[in-house]
Amino acid sequence: MSNLFDLTGKTAVAIGGNSVLGSAMVKGLADQGAQVAVVGRNLETAEEVVQDIIAKGGKAKAFQADVISKESLKNVAKEIEAWSGGWDILLNAPGTNSPTPFFEIEEDEWDHILDVNLKGIMLTTQVFAERMIEQERKGSIINISSVSSTTPLSRVFTYSVSKAGVNNMTQFLAREFAPHGIRVNAIIPGFFPAEQNRKILSEERIASIMGHTPMDRFGKPEELAGTAVWLASDEASGFVTGTLIRVDGGFGAMTI
């Protein structure tokens, strides 16, 4: 069964692979044999992820790019191609958030969150998927969404809107890229201790989250790795595309 998840010989590009959740998924891909290009705006944190992978015998390299700049993404794509020759897996895991009340949201904040969370994935996919198609490399694109993408959570209006867009984009691109053998899916994480949600986790909100999570706990970042590996593997999920896969402890199944 382990051969189903073997990623040996494949290259993964992880945008936002230096974040808490992104790095957990990146390490999971590397554990299964993929060489990984860890791309982040902060090169120092990307290097830390790379060193962790190398220490375990994996192959990885850190790269710096700004996800909302197409020119920056084109440049880093050239650098990655020079390093690896191309890529088979694209993990889109950029993210930013804000708890600003609706009537206090300024246009600059709205634009920034939509740019990073939605426009960034669009630009990244334009750059990296186009090259996959040119090289006739079949593969997998994995977008990171959120439980707030389906039923929006309180206090994160702009974030919820952006993640709903990610879901729609995922399904559109799954149809668009299927003739090229490129699968596009999204992971919908539940509540994980990521940096962008810590600032809104008051004791009252934590109690509310636990009351709506049947497993009665937060997720652990490494619990996303298996889903990412499964979606990345052609043998394990070669006919899976256009799906939105929940890893949320049952949050999406909870009613009264």
From TrEMBL:
PROSITE patterns: ADH_SHORT (PS00061)
Any Pfam family hit: adh_short_C2
Name of the protein in its database record: Uncharacterized oxidoreductase HI_0048
EC category name: oxidoreductase
Homology family: Belongs to the short-chain dehydrogenases/reductases (SDR) family.
Enzyme Commission no: 1.-.-.-
UniProt entry tagged with the keyword Oxidoreductase: yes
GO biological-process terms attached to the record: carbohydrate metabolic process
Keywords: Oxidoreductase
InterPro entries (UniProt xref): NAD(P)-bd_dom_sf, Sc_DH/Rdtase_CS, SDR_fam
Organism: Sporosarcina pasteurii (Bacillus pasteurii)
